């Protein structure tokens, strides 16, 4: 697939809560993610449901039927489109008003990446810790004999 269909870091930095990921995680996520094009009048969730995934509208206009809330029109590039579609209620159906570009992320993958970002700073780098102790004149014992 061409690089033109890949998601850029700039796009990822504008999506919530994905923008909270570290730059290293965003680069990793960008390498795994592609932009989907959906033609006008089609339902982007008919074949691939949104259950278990976060879907963002990047470009175009999408009408969403969330049930009790009635019909809502989301426009790509707006603050509302920076949040996953259908999160406020049950997504019954959707219809592309114009050709649209979407990006989908597996919710479990995003959860794992966010967890890695939370844990990574808390895990000390053993080599750095040992080098710091040696430079302070302390004896360092690594491993057990």
Summarize the structure.
The chain has helices at residues 9-13, 23-32, 107-119, 126-135, and strands at 36-38, 53-59, 61-65, 71-75, 93-96, 100-106. It is of the alpha+beta class. Strands 1-6-2 form a 3-stranded antiparallel beta sheet. Strands 4-3-5 form a 3-stranded antiparallel beta sheet, with no helix packed on it.
> What fraction of the residues are assigned to beta strands by DSSP?
15-25%
In round numbers, the mean pLDDT is 81
- How would the global form be characterised? globular
* Multimeric state: single chain
Q: What's the level 1 CATH class?
A: Mainly Beta
Task: Please indicate the count of domains.
Answer: 1
The CATH topology turns out to be Jelly Rolls
Low-confidence blocks of residues: none
Classification by helices and strands = alpha+beta
N→C terminal distance: 52 Å
CATH superfamily, please? Answer: Jelly Rolls
**SSE topology string:** HHEEEEEEHH
Give the strand order, joined by hyphens, for the main sheet.
1-6-2
What percent of residues adopt helix (DSSP H or I)?
Answer: 25-40%
Number of helices: 4
Total E-strand runs: 6
Radius of gyration: 21 Å
Main sheet properties: 3 strands, antiparallel
State the CATH architecture. Answer: Sandwich
For this entry, give a set of tags.
single chain, 145 residues, alpha+beta, Jelly Rolls, three-stranded antiparallel β-sheet, 4 helices, 26% helix, 21% strand
Describe the structure.
With 145 residues, this protein is α+β, with helices and mostly antiparallel strands. The chain has a single domain (3-135), classed as Jelly Rolls, CATH 2.60.120. Helices cover 26% and strands 21% of the residues. It is built from four helices and six strands. The protein has helices at 9-13, 23-32, 107-119, 126-135; strands at residues 36-38, 53-59, 61-65, 71-75, 93-96, 100-106. The strands form two sheets. It has a three-stranded antiparallel β-sheet with strand order 1-6-2. A three-stranded antiparallel β-sheet has the order 4-3-5, with no helix packed on it. It is globular, with a radius of gyration of 21 Å. The mean pLDDT is 81.
């Amino acid at each position: 697939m061409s690089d033109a269909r890949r998601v850029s870091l700039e796009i990822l930095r504008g999506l919530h809560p994905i923008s909270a990921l570290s730059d290293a995680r965003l680069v990793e996520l960008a390498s795994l993610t592609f932009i989907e094009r959906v033609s006008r009048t089609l339902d982007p969730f008919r074949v691939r449901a949104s259950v278990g995934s976060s879907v963002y509208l990047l470009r175009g206009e999408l009408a969403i039927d969330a049930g009790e809330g009635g019909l809502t029109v989301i426009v790509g590039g707006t603050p509302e489109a920076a949040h996953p579609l259908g999160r406020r209620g049950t997504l019954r159906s959707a219809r592309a008003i114009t050709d649209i570009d979407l990006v989908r992320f597996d919710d479990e993958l995003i959860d794992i990446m966010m967890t890695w970002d939370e844990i990574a700073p808390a895990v000390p780098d053993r080599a750095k810790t040992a080098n710091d102790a040696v430079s302070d004149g302390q004896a360092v014992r690594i491993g057990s004999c």
